[in-house]
Amino acid sequence: MPRSTRAARKPDRPYHHGNLRRGLLDEALATIRAEGVEGLTLREIGARLGVSRTALYRHFADKRALLAGVATEGFRTLRQQLVAAWEEGGRGRAAFESMGAAYVRFAVANPSHYRVMFGGFVNPKACEPELTAEAAGAFQALVDALAALQRDAIVRGDDTVKMARFVWAVVHGVAMLGIDGQLPEPCGVEELMRYALERLRTGIDAAERASGRRRRH
Amino acid sequence: MPRSTRAARKPDRPYHHGNLRRGLLDEALATIRAEGVEGLTLREIGARLGVSRTALYRHFADKRALLAGVATEGFRTLRQQLVAAWEEGGRGRAAFESMGAAYVRFAVANPSHYRVMFGGFVNPKACEPELTAEAAGAFQALVDALAALQRDAIVRGDDTVKMARFVWAVVHGVAMLGIDGQLPEPCGVEELMRYALERLRTGIDAAERASGRRRRH
DNA sequence: GGGATCGTGTTGACATCGTCAACATTGTGG
DNA sequence: CCACAATGTTGACGATGTCAACACGATCCC
What we know:
Two copies of one chain form a homodimer. Chain A is an all-alpha fold. The first copy, chain A, folds into two domains: 20-58, Homeodomain-like (Arc Repressor Mutant, subunit A); 67-202, Orthogonal Bundle (Tetracycline Repressor, domain 2), CATH 1.10.357.10. Chain A contains eight helices and no strands. In chain A, helix 1 (20-35) packs across helix 3 and helix 6 crosses helix 7. Chain A starts with 19 loop residues before the first helix and ends in a 15-residue tail after the last helix. The relative contact order of chain A is 0.09. Chain A binds a DNA duplex through loops.
C-alpha cells in the first residue's frame, strides 16, 4: 500500500521503513515539544509515522525506554551547546559565563525536553547505561571548564567535581524557575541568570571580606 | 453495609464519609510517597478509602486538581519547616543556613512529593490560585529572611527578591540533584549543601578580591 | 537457487485508567 | 414533613500501554 512518499533511493534504509528508530525519536521529541510529556502517546506517534502502534516495540522495550532515548539525545545536544559556548567564548571566565547562559537558554527553549531529562520519567538506576553516560558527558563538560579555570587561578582550588555540582545546581535551579513560569516574564530568566553568574563569582555576603582566609592547598 | 469501622461520634463529619477531601489528600500523598507520582490512580485511592472510584469528583474537578491539592499542602509544609528553621536558628546567618538545610532535607525526605510540586504536573497559570498563593508564601519566607539579613548588613543590599530567587535556585538545584540520584550517596546531598552554602557566601572566585567595588546604593 | 532464520511490522485483544451521565442516598432548611 | 442540595454509586465509554500471534522481508547457509 502507499508507504507514503518515502522508501526512495536512501542508501541507509535497513529494512521496511527507513530507519524507524530515528523517526520515532524525532517524532516523539516533536510531539513532546508541541504537547508536553503527558501528551505523548505511542499510538499517535506511530500513526504520524505511517506505522502501526506496536511497531516501536521492535526498537524500544517500553514507553520509558523511548523517553530515555529522547532524554539521551537531549543530554547530547546540551553537551554540544555547552562545549560550543566554552570553546567559542575563549575558554576563559567569559566563556564560562557563556556556558551558563547556553545552559539556561537550552532549558528555556526546550522546556518539555528538559523536563524529560530531569523530571524523573527515566530511572536513574543504571537501567539505561547510554543515558547515564550521556548525562555524565554533559556534566563532564562543566567539570573540564572549571578545571581549566582552576589552572588559570581564576576560580578557587576546591574539589573540582564538588564545585561543578554546585554550579550545576545553580544553573539547573535558574532554568527550573524559568521553565515553571515562576519568573515575571519569559525574559526574566536571562536577567536572573546574569545576576546569578555575578553572585556565583562573588557570593552574597556583604562586600567586606578581606583577602585573608586564603587556602590554596 | 459495613461502612468499615468509621462513622462514629466524630463531630466534624459533614456527610456520609468523614471528611473525604482530607482523606483523599492524605491517601493520595501516601500513595505518591510509596509508588511515585505515576503510580497514583484514582480508583486505587478510592478503594483504599472504602469509597467508590468517582467519589472524589465531588471534591476535586480533576486528577490534576487533586495533584494540585497535594502540591499545595507540600508548599504549606515546606514553608512551615523553613520558618521554623529560621526562627529556631536565631534569625541570623546560622538560621539562614539552617533554612537551606531544611529545604534540602524536605526535598530529599519527600522526593515524590517534591516532584509533584515542581515537576510541572500542575499548571502554573493561575488555574489554582490556592496553589500559587501557597507557593508564593513559601518563597516569601525566604525573602523575609534575606531582608532581615540585609538589615543587619550580613548580606549584600541587592534587590531582595532577585537575591531570593538566586538562593532559591541554588537550594532547588541541590535538592534536584539529590533527588535524581545523581549524587554519590544519599548523604552526599548534605555534604553538597554544606559546600553550596559556603560558596553561596563567598562565591567561587579565587580569594583575591579586595574590599573595593563596594556598592551600597 | 531454495529454504531456514532472524529482523521488522501488523492485527487482535485485554486490562487499566480517567471521566461522564444517570441514579441513589443522606443531611439540612423551610 | 418535604423539597433540595450535597455527597456517593453504578454503568459505560474512549483512550492507552502492552502482550501474543501472525505476516512480510531480507539475509545466510547449503
